[in-house]
Amino acid sequence: MQPTFACVIGRVPVSSKQNGAEGEVGDRNGSVCSVTMKRCCTYTLGVVAILLLVAGISLVLSHVFPRFIHSMVEKEVVLKNDTDAFEAWENPPAHIYMQFYFFNVTNPLEVLSGERPAVVEVGPYTYREYRPMEEVAFQENGTKVAAVNTKTYIFQPEMSRGPESDLIRTINIPAVTVMKKFQNVFLANLVSAYMKSLGVGLFTTRTVGELLWGYQDNLLASLQKFQPQLDDVFGLFYKSNASNDGQYVFFTGELNYRDFARVDTWNGGSSLNWWSTAECNMINGTIGASFHPVITKDEMLYIFSSDMCRSLYAIYEEDVVVKGIPAYRFSPPSEVFANTTANAGFCVPLGNCPGSGLLDVSTCKQGAPIVLSSPHFYQAEEKFVEAVFGMKPNKEQHQTTIDVNPLTGVVLRAAKRLQVNVHVEKLPRYRYLAPRLRHRCSFFPGCQ
After folding, report:
1. pLDDT at 249
2. How buried is 363 (Cβ within 10 angstroms: 0-12 exposed, 13-18 middle, 19+ buried)?
3. How confident is the model over 124-171, as pLDDT tens digits?
4. 42 near 413, Cβ under 8 Å?
5. Is the pLDDT of residue 433 over 90?
6. Per-residue b/e over 166-185, b at no fewer than 16 CB within 10 Å?
7. What is the mean pLDDT of residues 236-261?
8. CB 425 within 8 A of CB 332
9. What is the three-state SS of the chain?
10. 73 or 82: whose pLDDT is higher?
11. Mean per-residue pLDDT, 348-372
C-alpha cells in the first residue's frame, strides 16, 4: 500500500485479447468487473525522529525501567505544534504509492450466455500519493485538532506495467447502475430502447485513466437532461484526485494517550447513517496512519475507513522486524466481514447479506452496485472464488496487514488490500442485453 508507504489499488487490465491477441500478465488473475486495491506502507529507519529517540532509550532501559519508559512515551506522543509526532502526522515524510490492478474480461459473449466469467489480472499502474493534513486547527485547549486529508496522485510510468492509455474491458458500471435505478415498466422500456440505439451493453472498454479518474458517459449525459442533479461523468476515483473525503476532528492524546489520533467526528458527525444498527454506524479508531503508544498484543486496533464506509478492527497476528525495529503485526480477522449476527447491521435492508467475505456498499455509493472484498475473495466463501475463473486467493499477496511499533504506535509498514466488485443481476426489462443469460445474479468477480 520500498522503504516507505506503498499504496496499491487494483485495476482491470486492457487485455489485447479483445483484438485477438492476449497480452502476458503474469500469474495474477482477476475477475470480470472488479478492481483490486492494495495500499501498502513502510516507514524507513530514520524517517520519524521520535521513533529513533524512543527506540534508542528503550533498548537501554526497557528491562530496567519499563514503566518509566511507557510513562514518558505516553506523555511525549501527542499531537501538538513543534513535536516530531505532529510533524509526521501532518505531512508524512515517507513515500506513499497507490497501485491499481484491473481484471480484464476475456469471454464477454460467453458470460452473456450464462457461462462462468474468465478474467485476467493486469497491473500494477502505480501512482505516487501525497496526503498532507491541511486546514489544521486546534480545538478545546489543544485536546482536539481539526483537519482535512487532501490526497493527490501522480502517475509513475517507470513503476507501472504500461501507460494510462492502456485499454480495459470490464463491466459497464454506469449502465448497470441506470438499469437498477429505472425498473418501472415505462421508464425501463425507454431506457432500454435508448441504450440499444447507442449500442450500450453490459461491457465496456475504457482506458486506465478513464476508469480511474473519470470519463463522460453518453447514457448518463442523456439522462442528465431529465435529472439535472445526475453527474454525467463516471470514474472509480472520480473527484478523488487533489481532493479530500471531508473534515475530521481528531483527539490529540493530550488528555489520554490511548486517544492519540483517534477520530472524534467526520464531516460534523460522530456516527454514520448508512447502516441498519447504531453499532455498525459507529466511528471507531484512527484513520490507520498511526496509533496510540504502548500497544499490547491482546488489544484490538480500530480503524475508520471512509473508502469502506465503516469502521473495522485488526488483531495481533505475530511479531515481526522492520528494518531492525521490532513490531507487532495486526490484521483484520475473517470475522470482520463474516455473515454473522454481529455484522447483520451492515446488511441493508436487514437480512440482505451478500455472504461472508463481502461488503455491499451501494448504500453509501449513490446506489452504484459496488461490493467490496479482499483481493481474489481471500477469506470469503469458496463459492465466490469458484464462480469466476482466475481467482487465486493468497494470504501473502491479498491480506491486509499493519506492522506497528508497540512502544510508540508508529506504523512501520502496512498493506491495505481491497477489491472493488460490481453486482450484476438479471433484469427482465433489459433482456436485449443478455437474451440467453441464465444466471440470476453475478458478482464480478463472483456470483452468489
Report:
1. 98
2. middle
3. 999 999 999 999 999 999 999 999 999 999 999 999 999 999 999 999
4. yes
5. no
6. bbbbbbbbbbbbbbbbbeee
7. 94
8. no
9. CCCCEEEEECCCCCCHHHHCCCCCCCCCCCCCCCEEEEEEEECCCCCCHHHHHHHHHHHHHCCCCHHHHHHHHHHHCCCCCCCHHHHHHHCCCCCEEEEEEEEEECCHHHHHCCCCCEEEEEEEEEEEEECCEEEEEEECCCCEEEEEECEEEEECHHHCCCCCCCEEEEECHHHHHHHHHCCCHHHHHHHHHHHHHHCCCCEEEEEHHHHHHCEECHHHHHHCCCCCCCCCEECCCCCCCCECCCEEEEECCCCCHHHCCCEEEECCECECCCCCCCCCCECCCECCCECCCCCCCCCCEEEEECCCCEEEEEEEEEEEEECCEEEEEEECCHHHHCCCHHHHHHCCCCCCCCCCCCEECHHHCCCCCEEEECHHHCCCCHHHHHCCECCCCCHHHHCCEEEECCCCCEEEEEEEEEEEEEEEECCHHHHHHCCCCCCCEEEECCCC
10. 82
11. 90
Q: Rounded mean pLDDT of the chain?
A: 83
Among the residue ranges 110-114, 241-245, 248-252, 440-444, the one predicted with the least confidence is 440-444
Residue 178: pLDDT band (50, 70, 90) is confident
- The x, y and z cell numbers of residue 388, run together, are 469466476
Q: Find the farthest-apart pair of alpha carbons in the chain and give their distance in angstroms, rounded.
A: 78
Is the Cα dihedral 201, 207, 211, 217 positive or negative? negative
